[in-house]
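Researcher: Re-running this chain for the archive, since the previous output was lost when a drive failed. Same request as before.
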Amino acid sequence: MSQTALAPTASPNPAPNPSPTSSSAARSRPLRRLRPLVQLNVGLVLYGASTALLLRAGFGVDPWTVLHQGLHQLTGLSVGTAAVLTSLLVLALWVPLRQRPGIGTILDGLLVGPFTDATLALCPTPHALPLRVALLAGSILLNGVATACYIGAGLGAGPRDGLMTGLAARGLSLRGTRTLIELGALGGGWLLGGPVGIGTIAYAVSIGPLAQRLLPLFTLRTTGSSDSRQLAD
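Model: Regenerated structure tokens:
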């Protein structure tokens, strides 16, 4: 009796080999998830550092730092500690506005102040006028980069930005609300002895256009671009 050799039959549905593209995409997915948090923290470090450099320039500071410096002079608290306490107070105002903080909101309130204090401890006060002018310009530019970084990360508005958008959601003008909040902080800080000067004006007229120009460079694809543009306007 003759015997015929049975040829091995091929599987009708062979398992596909993973392509190099899909493998690299899978490996890069955790990095993409981590990038917003890294960018947020970089922005907060730069924001605290730029605030301290603006103080060291000695020409006046942004409205909220005027308030923090005024509280420092009144109570003896460090500028950074005053900033943290102010942020917590502003966050308390979110409750009646039914605003929900994100991780970025919490980190903003807790980290910018300590980074400000750390930079103040490391950076001496310059005395030469050209160096002070350069420090003023550089600190405003750095603050613009920092603002674009933390807003572009899309992990939650800062405490003051959330207060602004919460009030605007009640029918108030966004620009008008922002102006009133900034003027309130500026006026309160000035009454407490905070530094107001040409640097305050330079910051006020520069930071909006700077942040708006830089924001597209730092806005991540996974973030709400419309919200980011709203906060930068």
